[in-house]
């Protein structure tokens, strides 16, 4: 038998096989990406697709919610307006902003009509035979008189006609010009019947303080006519008065329907004695208003935050690490810039958001290799030196997350600060990051409905992130400068 | 179905079937299952880490291209390793051997291969063995890997390397002597160092 067949190296073989049985070297992330991207048919589905799909879903849901709510509020507003204008209830929603000198005089429709005639208030009125105050419904391209049915009280008739005449796309302007308080009609209304005339119930002169809560509430918006305009109004013809002095207010029914209600002074002679009690125009907002003053359809916000990250990195001490000398040289430099897009809703002072974006890990470190070379030195001619090379990497870390924060307005509403937390998930490394999030926003008006906020955001990660090979620990501290667009904030 | 639709593959058979259906998640899971071990195999055969990564990449592309040919999914472990080893051998034939220069190792006087040296060699840890492998000439390293670690016999090694069996035997013999030389040097060095 050949001696080779005896396999004299069995001991050696067994030991070598045991030694290398669990020998593993984790490939670099760039190598893994390169391989996975070259796979035959299945190109790896990139997580950015999920992120984009999620954002589109979020935006679509928000849009549908807004459209749906607008439709619903368009239906409800008509009832809300009338109910809030009930003469027997003086709530914040139906705050009376119409000071009239004759406000306390109960007038029947007939009397109101009489007074209207006596005061020669005929401008732009189309008095019907049964309505004390003339009304006009103006629809672009269509102008139809609003006529109450004889058996129905004024406000009920008004509403009935409104419902009949309004379509969602129509703009209806309901202008009431009279020198008598419309309130006079309400005494005859049913108890639960919506009444319009309660809008002119207040006796006290209006002040800015009176106006502001109602204005902020969004239900009743008043435009006060300046006192110096009053004599001209009185002396001028009532036609001109109704056309020029009565500010146009719109009560919208539906999305783009507006109804304006204007009340005039009942007694022109009292104008000089009571200059503060001047004609004002009350309008009823189209929106139902929440208690905190924020309209439900205006709770949304969306912001984009370019993020620059400082990542304090270290090699895990207890791992079989091949890394040493880890550095993050480019903290806050352009190479570290990621982004985050947030969209969410506000509830009072709280705001919840969903986010997507990516961080960037930029570092260089030394990787020790499984190679050795002999470097003779005087003390040891066979001195073995382990070879190493330096790696500089810039890796994108996609993330999705959700957060909750609270905001407060400061500096007379010019600034908003927010503080909260965010939970993020990094799909590529399947890790989670819990962080504290704070920011200071400068509020800038963008339009009459929207505002823009320039913000500085800081996030601090409460837990560590590990690199793909789980040899590098990352402690993220993220700073970003963001831009947010949202409906104008009301002071909660 | 888990979060983000990440499907989990309970068995190796499911994983292989998913790869055969070109499912990206299955391919990724399959890759992650073998990446560490297979790159370790490549490091043993290669001269440098860069070479190891080249072999690793080429091997995995072969794996995913030819995974349809895997009849028994449960034997995927050995099949993948065989593909990696063959890729390393091909890389040696294609790249390493043309650059190969037999060094003066041939002229090294062979120390007597005593049992003590073999015992000493058998007692080296993984890192030290890697150091010894890296010092071997390329063809010797190939034979040592195939014989001592992979467990092939000389006939199989001869077939894989397309060399006569006697050549495979003699290469391994010389490689072993060279390893013992290294051990001897290391022992002397250690003796000198420790006094």
UniProtKB/TrEMBL annotation, chain B:
Which GO biological process categories is it annotated with?
A: DNA-templated transcription initiation
A Pfam match: Sigma70_r2
The reply on keyword Signal is no
The answer to whether UniProt assigns keyword Nuclease to this entry is no
Q: Where is the RNA polymerase sigma factor 70 region 4 type domain?
A: 127-179
Keywords, ordered alphabetically: Sigma factor, Transcription, Transcription regulation
Concerning InterPro entries, the annotation shows:
RNA_pol_sigma-70-like, RNA_pol_sigma-70_dom, RNA_pol_sigma70_r2, RNA_pol_sigma70_r4_t2, RNA_pol_sigma_r2, RNA_pol_sigma_r3/r4-like, WH-like_DNA-bd_sf
Classification via NCBIfam families: sigma70-ECF (TIGR02937)
The molecule here is called RNA polymerase sigma factor
């Amino acid at each position: 038998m050949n001696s080779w067949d005896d396999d004299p190296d069995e001991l050696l073989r067994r030991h070598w096989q045991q030694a290398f049985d669990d020998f593993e070297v984790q490939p670099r992330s760039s190598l893994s990406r390169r391989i996975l991207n070259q796979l035959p048919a299945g190109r790896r589905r990139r997580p950015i697709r999920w992120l984009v799909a999620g954002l589109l879903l979020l935006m679509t849901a928000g849009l549908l919610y807004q459209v749906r709510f607008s439709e619903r509020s368009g239906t409800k507003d008509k009832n809300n307006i009338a109910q809030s204008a009930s003469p027997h209830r003086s709530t914040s929603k139906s705050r009376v902003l119409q000071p009239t000198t004759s406000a306390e005089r109960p007038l029947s429709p007939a009397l109101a009509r009489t007074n209207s005639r006596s005061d020669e208030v005929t401008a732009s009125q189309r008095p019907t035979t049964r309505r004390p105050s003339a009304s006009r419904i103006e629809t672009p391209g269509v102008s139809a008189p609003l006529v109450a049915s004889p058996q129905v009280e004024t406000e009920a008739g008004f509403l009935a006609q409104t419902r009949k005449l309004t379509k969602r796309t129509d703009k209806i302007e309901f202008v009431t010009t009279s020198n008598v308080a419309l309130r006079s009609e309400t005494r005859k209304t049913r108890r639960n019947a919506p009444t319009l005339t309660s809008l002119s119930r207040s006796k006290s002169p209006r002040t800015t303080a009176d106006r502001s809560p109602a204005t902020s509430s969004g239900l009743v918006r008043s435009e006060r006519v300046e006192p110096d305009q009053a004599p001209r109004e009185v002396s001028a013809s009532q036609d001109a008065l109704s056309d020029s002095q009565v500010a146009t207010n719109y009560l919208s029914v539906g999305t783009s329907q507006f109804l304006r209600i204007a009340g005039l002074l009942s007694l022109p002679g009292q104008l000089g004695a009571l200059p503060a009690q001047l004609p004002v125009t009350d309008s009823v907002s189209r929106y139902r208003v929440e208690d905190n003053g924020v309209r439900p359809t205006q709770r949304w916000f969306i912001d984009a935050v370019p993020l620059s990250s400082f990542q304090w990195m270290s090699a895990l001490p207890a791992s079989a690490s091949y890394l040493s000398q880890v550095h993050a040289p480019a903290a806050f430099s352009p190479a570290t810039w990621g982004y985050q897009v947030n969209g969410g809703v506000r509830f009072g002072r709280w705001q919840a958001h969903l986010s997507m974006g990516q961080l960037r890990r930029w570092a260089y470190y030394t990787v020790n290799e499984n190679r050795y070379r002999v470097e003779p030195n005087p003390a040891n001619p066979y001195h073995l030196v382990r070879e190493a090379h330096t790696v500089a990497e810039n890796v994108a870390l996609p993330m999705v997350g959700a957060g909750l924060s609270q905001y407060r307005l400061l500096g007379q509403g010019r600034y908003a600060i927010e503080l909260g937390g965010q939970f993020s998930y990094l799909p590529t490394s399947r890790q989670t990051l819990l962080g504290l999030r704070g920011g200071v926003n400068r509020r800038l008006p963008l339009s009459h409905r929207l505002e823009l906020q320039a913000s500085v955001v800081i996030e601090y990660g409460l837990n560590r992130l590990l690199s793909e090979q789980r040899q590098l620990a990352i402690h993220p501290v993220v700073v970003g400068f963001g831009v947010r667009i949202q409906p104008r904030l009301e002071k909660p | 179905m888990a979060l983000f639709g990440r499907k989990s593959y309970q068995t190796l058979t499911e994983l292989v079937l998913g790869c055969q259906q070109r499912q990206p998640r299955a391919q990724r899971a399959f890759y992650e299952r073998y990446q560490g071990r297979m790159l370790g195999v490549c490091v043993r055969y290669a001269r440098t880490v860069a070479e190891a990564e080249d072999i690793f990449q080429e091997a995995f592309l072969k794996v995913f291209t030819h995974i349809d040919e895997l009849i028994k999914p449960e034997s995927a472990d050995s099949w993948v390793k065989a593909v990696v080893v063959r890729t390393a051998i091909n890389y040696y034939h294609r790249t390493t051997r043309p650059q190969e220069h037999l060094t003066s190792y041939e002229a090294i006087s062979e120390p007597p291969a005593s049992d003590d040296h073999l015992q000493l060699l058998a007692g080296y840890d993984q890192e030290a063995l890697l150091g010894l492998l890296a010092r071997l000439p390329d063809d010797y390293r190939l034979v040592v890997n195939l014989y001592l670690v992979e467990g092939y016999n000389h006939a199989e090694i001869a077939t894989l390397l397309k060399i006569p069996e006697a050549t495979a035997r003699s290469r391994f013999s010389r490689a072993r002597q060279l390893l013992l030389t290294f051990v001897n040097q290391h022992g002397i060095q250690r003796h000198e160092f420790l006094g």
